[in-house]
Amino acid sequence: MSLEGAERQRLFVGGSWVEPDGGYYGVVDPASEETVGWAPEASRDQVHAACAAAREAFGPWSRTAPEERAAVLARTARIIGERFAPYAELAQAETGATTGTARGMQVGVGAARFRRYARVEPAEWAIPPQINEAGPMGPAAVMGALAVRQPVGVVTCITSYNNPWANPAGKIAPALAMGNTVVVKPAPQDPLSVYRMAEALEAAGAPAGVVNVVSGRAVEVGEAAVSSPDVDMVSFTGSTAVGQRIAEVCGRDMKRQLMELGGKGAALVFDDADLGSAVAGIGTTFSFYSGQICTAPTRVLAQRGVYGRLVEQLAAHAGRLTVGDPRAAGTVVGPVISAEHRDRVESYVETGRKEGAVVVAGGERPPYERGFYVAPTLLADCTNDMRVAREEIFGPVVSVIPFDEEEEGIALANDTDYGLIDYVWSGDVARAFRVARRLRAGGVGINTVGRNMEAPFGGFKRSGVGRDVGSYALHAYSEVQAIVWPG
Fold it and tell me: Where does the record place the Aldehyde dehydrogenase domain (predicted)?
C-alpha cells in the first residue's frame, strides 16, 4: 500500500461524495503500523444530512419492486467480485487479517451475502380464516387475514472492526432487500472497506440516498446516527457496554433494535470427546481474526478425565501456530487491531496470572519491532469466577476450567452474563443434544465451530437482542402488518 499517495476518502451522503467537515484521520495497518489511507471525520450535521437523505429515499425505494431491489444486490455482488483483489488487499491492510481470511471470510463472505439477499422471498402469508359470531362488532362473518412484511424505514447500521465486509454486508443487504434505506457508520479503525462497498452499490444502480456512509472517531458521529429523528431502527454489532447505551436511546424513541453484542462462548469437552476435533475447533480462537470474534470458544470447560490431555494438546497446538506478517504464506495468526487493544489483551493475561491461572502457552509479546502482535495464549487451572473467564477479552486467549459431572458443566457454562454461541464436544450424540438444549445461548455447535449460514444468529442475555442471518434477517429488518377483511 502506498503511504504518501494514500487517497483521502470522502463521505457518501445522498448519492454524493462529500468533503468531511471534521477533516481526516489516518487508518493504520496493524501489521506494519503504516498509514493505509485517510478516513473522513463527519460532523453531526453531516450525519443528520445522511439520515435525512435516507428518509427522502425511503418512499421510492420501499415502493420499488422486490425484483428490482434484488437486481441491485446481485449487481453489487458481481462488481465486488470484479474488484476482488484490490478490495481484499485493502481489507487486509486495514484489519491485519491473514490473506486467506481477507479473501475468503471478509470480501468473499461480503459478496456472498449480497448474492444471498438478491433471492426474492415471499413477504406475505395467508392467515386461516376465522368465523366470527354476530355481536357488538358487527354481524356474523368469515374474516380473512393476510400477514405482510413491511420495511421498517431508515436503518442505522453500526458495524464492527473485525470484519469490515461480512458484517456490514450482513446488515445492508437484507435491509435493502426489504425496502429499507440505510445509514452506515463503520468502525473507526477500518472504515475504508465500507466505502468501497458503497462504491459497488452506487455502480450497481442503488438510487441516491438509499445507502449512505458516514465515519469518524468522535463519539458524536455514532450518537447522531442513533438519535436522529429520521432513523427508525438501529442495527449494531459491538461491545455490550456500547450496545446498552444505544438501547437506552432507542428505548426513549421506541426505535427498533437488532443487537449483536459480546460473547464468552463456553466449550464443554466431555471425557468421550474426539480431542483432535475439540483442539482444532477451540484452536480457531487463536487463529481466526486473532481471537477478535465474539463467537470464539474462549472459555473451555473440560471434564476431569480429559482435562490434562486437552490442556497439553491445546498448548502444543498454540505453540505450532506461526505468528507474524499476515501477508506471508505460512502465517496463521496476524496482529490485533491496534496498540491499545494489544495492551488490553496483555493486561488480561497478567490479570489471569495474578488470579492464579497458569500460563501454559504464550503469555509473552512476539519479538517483532512493528505490528500489534499477541502470542496465542492458553490459561489453565482457571475458575469460573476469574475475570479471564467472565469478561470478553477479544484476543487469542483461551481459559480452561475443569469440571466433574454433566450437571456441573452445564451450570458453569450458564454462569455468565453472555449467551451468544456455546459448543459441546462429546462422542455421545444423545448427550450432546441434551446438553445443548440446556445451554442458555443463542446457538450451540455440536462437535464443530462451523456455522449454517441460514440458521438464526443472535444471543441470549447480554449478548444481544434479535436474530439475523438467512431469512431471519429479512424478519429483523421488517415490521409485520396484518390486513383483515370480511370473506
Answer: 17-483
- Give me the catalytic one of 41, 199, 260, 346: 260
Q: Which residue has the cell 422471498?
A: 121
Cα(193)–Cα(91) distance, integer angstroms? 6
Distance CA 345, CA 372 (A): 11
Phi, psi of 266 (to 5 degrees): -90, 135
Active site annotation includes 294: yes
Q: Give the span between the Cα atoms of 352 and 476, in whole angstroms.
A: 39
Q: List the domains of the chain with CATH numbers.
A: 11-261+463-486 (3.40.605.10), 266-453 (3.40.309.10)
Q: Which of 51, 157, 250, 294 is catalytic?
A: 294
Residue type, 54: A
What pTM did the predictor assign?
A: 0.95
In this predicted structure, what is the pLDDT of residue 487? 76
- DSSP class of residue 104? I
Task: Concatenate the DSSP letters of all residues of 137-186 into one string.
Answer: TBS-EEEEEEEEEEE-SEEEEE--SS-TTHHHHHHHHHHHHTT-EEEEE-
d(CA 441, CA 458): 9
Q: Decide: helix, strand or coil at residue 433.
A: helix
Helix (H), strand (E) counts: the chain: 17, 20
For residue 432, give the C-alpha cell: 450432546
CA 354, chain centre distance (Å): 32
Residue range 74-115, pLDDT digits in tens:
999 999 999 999 999 999 999 999 999 999 999 999 999 999
Say if CB 349 and CB 398 are below 8 A apart.
no
Catalytic residue list contains 51: no
